[in-house]
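Crash report, auto-generated. Payload:
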Amino acid sequence: MKHIYIIGNSAAAISAVESIRLHDQESQITIISEEEYPAYGRCLISYLLAGDIPESKLNLRPADFYQQNKVDLLLGKKVVELSVKKRRVTLDDGEKKEFDVALIATGARPDMPEIKGIGKQGVSGFRTLNETKELISIATFAKAACVLGGGLIGLKAAYALKKRGLNVLVIVKSKHVLSQVLDDLGAKMVGRHLEAKGIEILIDQDVSEIIGNGQVRAIKLLSGKAIEASIVIVGKGVKPNIQFLKESGINTDFGILTNEYLETNVQGIFAAGDVCQSFDLVRGAAFINALWPNAVEQGRIAGLNIVGKNLKYIGSLSLNAVEFFGLPIVSMGLKKAEPGCETLEASNGKAQIYKKFILKDNHLKGFIGIGNIKNSGIFLRMIREGVDISSVKNDLLSDSFSYAKVMDLFGKDGLYSNYQEQK
Amino acid sequence: MKKNLYFDVKKCMACRTCELVCCVGHSLVKELSKAIKEKQIVLPKIKVSANSGKNFPITCRHCKDARCIDACIARALTFDNEKKEVIHDKEKCVGCWMCVMVCPYGAIRPDKQARIPVRCDHCIEIGEPQCAKSCPTKAIIFKEETGD
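Recovered output after restart:
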């Protein structure tokens, strides 16, 4: 009987447990998590903050999930050290536990810049349920909030706080919001939409200090101007949680480096989710795409490889779907054309519709859809499967585009087989 | 056994009866003349699309390893192991469009007004898919799966 130790308790960990238990009922599984809740939908915290959903809807699995899957769940505990030689972890309370196989799915944490006053109450990286609960209690009395950074986490927080009735100011260092998720035209369109809904956006600006006596009262801009706020959301990206691996001998770069089986340089130690720097199939290099669907898929593959299935992971890619005040947005792969790329695009600013395809040698490398996101899953498949799309290139922007136009590209699987002549 | 929708493409004339009965079947009153007056007009979960002279009704095929289930951030999409169907829980859905972004067939579309994905549920409420029942040329067949 093996002892499988899973460090982390979110998307990747849960999907790993389910895959392991499909094939292995014997091994002992332990999950350890720093947070004190059973797995919850981390991407849902902005909906909770907005008041769109109650806390009870955050649960990812039924209450008896861990029991049903025979998992020992250790909540509110942290792994501070991992010894590869002794195959042992040390917890923050000093306890040591041995394992045969480990899955590191510790996720990431907000990258907090070194600004004076960043530790004040009301400043939040907006990552956990506890942080969200604290924000909700402050928001009940607050009038204004500032969001540092125009990325997805920042904007989701901005949307939520606006829905709660606060005045929200988003402060962006670059020229646009969502500069990592969209191109300039798309970002402008979304920025205008957010402004029309009452969210203020300040570009080309940054914060030099967070002012307040314990509790945030205002932020000070580089320009010297001070702006009142009781909440400051820091959306400046995330950092993988790898501190405890420093002396372990497990290879890390920005995150944990793995091979195509999601195994680290140490046999029997795997990584998955936001902490795992696996292969990016669009960039063609090791990269972290810290996104929910990637974490679920990686967790499953790592889980299946833990039970000896030897499955290769094809790689992750940048992949986002989001909606702000009725405007749906999808972006995947490349956002801006690189040298040698071909771009196909159509936009209608008034109707808030934008579509853009980036191709390289007749292979799709990126897609942006705003307002109209139909069929984006087909575009994702084109990128993932790396098919030559020269024969359907001219259909991509057409309103009549559908799976029917491209099914021959993908071989005779899936829905295709349901179309054969029926007896 | 898993039942699924199959399509005899040669017989489909793109009359779009399937689209219509799909909407009516998912309306509150289940009657065309009244359904069109409902506050929330239901969008068809099946759409006929043409290519090279043939017509393809496109709809969710209830994949076993469904990418939409993996991508769902709210656990609104799950696989029912008994019925072998992908189930969508409207109450849990937050309308994030992850499922639309990953469906390899483009069979999930966004209903922007209702903020829920439009996808086939095999007419779970009525008990049998209305498209198959009503197709005038019998191009749509609901039968036991023949294997992928």
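Post-recovery validation: The longest helix of chain B spans residues 17-25.
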